[in-house]
Amino acid sequence: MFGPNTYFKDTVSIHSSHRDQSFFKLFDQVRELFAVKFGLEDYDILFIPGSATVGVEATMFSMKYRIKMAGYEGEFKNRWNQMLQNYPKKESYPETEMYCRLETSISAPFSKENCIVDAVSAFPYYDLPKGTKVMCSCLNKQLASYVGLAVVCVKKDQWEHCLDSDVYSYLNLRRYKDYADRHQTPNTSPTFIYEHFCRVLKSFDLEQFRDRINKVSDLICSAIPEEYIIGDRRCPVITIKKEAFKKDPGVAEKFDLYGYWTGKPDYQIFTYTSPVEDYKEFVRQYRSSC
Questions:
Q1: What is the mean pLDDT of the chain?
Q2: Which positions ≥6 away from 27 have C-beta within 8 Å?
Q3: How do the residues of the chain divide into helix, strand and coil, expressed in percent and rounded to 5?
Q4: Taking a C-beta distance cutoff of 8 angstroms, is the pair 20, 185 a contact?
Q5: With contact defined as beta carbons under 8 Å apart, do 272 and 212 qualify?
Q6: Which of 3, 65, 145, 283 is the 20 to 30 A CA-CA neighbour of 257?
Q7: What is the C-alpha separation between 154 and 65, in angstroms, rounded?
């Protein structure tokens, strides 16, 4: 409960192929809706099969930049630093920085202009900084759709810094752009994910979404003593020291707090994944245990 992926109910009904004209129209509609909804008209919207991590790796593979990690020290900065070792670039290539917009391991947002941005756990609660070259995110976290697609947004003036089409790899972003220009994907696409995501985008209200996260954050932080909160108190993820539950560890177990079973150093509550009533019940029981 309260983990990083949004809970929702849906009925899957597959009634078209990824090579049918109906999917071509749906694919174009989703890309346009995404760009307009979040003010990304200057970007090419690409969908990469797999987790958000695959989108990040595809970006590292594809960009002709010598990428250096910026931002706060944390779990994801360390992961990306390790991954970057697999993709050394020519010394003649220009240098740029990449960072986690929200380092979830410490609930710390970071912002810098003109960089590559891992916004996997940050988008769209936090604005995209000015001049962002590439933004990586996914459908299954804040955007509340299915697991299975990363979204990579490449600023249209950045394609000169990307690998050419003749580099044959399904990590090559240029391959996805070439197919998107023909209203298609280079791989067998899960059409039902695009259908669901299209419905999500049509009804998504950014201001209401941000307001909900703020209210849930305030609710949780009103119950947990300040000395046990790590990082921002209004955030898509609230990080809580385990000592906050020393009087009754059973509350953390009952609500299956993120990190309880995985040996994480602290517990975390993602503030967008469950119905508000579930957060209220957690707060009620936590207060009763103190």
A1: 95
A2: 180, 183, 184, 185, 189, 194
A3: 40, 20, 45
A4: no
A5: yes
A6: 145
A7: 14
What amino acid occupies position 186?
P
Closest CA to 162 of 59, 15, 23, 285: 59
Buried b (16+ CB within 10 A) or exposed e, 175-209: bbbebbeeebbbeebbbbbbbbbbebbeebeeeeb
d(CA 189, CA 19): 9
- The number of CA neighbours under 13 Å toward the Cβ of 235 is 25
64-78, 80-94, 238-252, range with the lowest pLDDT: 238-252
Contact assessment for residue 100 and residue 76, using Cβ atoms and an 8 Å cutoff: yes
- Local confidence band at 32 (pLDDT 50, 70, 90 cut-offs): very high
3-state SS of 208-253 is HHHHHHHHHHHHHHHHCCHHHEECCCCCCEEEEEHHHHCCCCHHHH
* Spatial contact of 89 and 59, defined as CB atoms under 8 Å apart: no
Model-level pTM? 0.93
Domain map of the chain by residue range?
21-203, 206-289
Looking at domain 21-203, which of 3.40.640.10, 3.40.720.10, 3.40.190.10, 3.40.50.300 is its CATH number?
3.40.640.10
> What does residue 60 show for φ and ψ, rounded to 5 degrees?
-60, -40
Alpha-carbon distance of 188 to 193, in angstroms, equals 12
Report d(CA 162, CA 148) in Å as an integer: 24
Question: Other CB atoms closer than 10 Å to residue 159's CB: what's the count?
Answer: 15
The residues near 87 (Cβ < 8 Å, ≥ 6 apart) are 60, 61, 67
Q: Is 276 helix (H, G, I), strand (E, B) or coil?
A: helix
CATH of domain 206-289: 3.90.1150.10
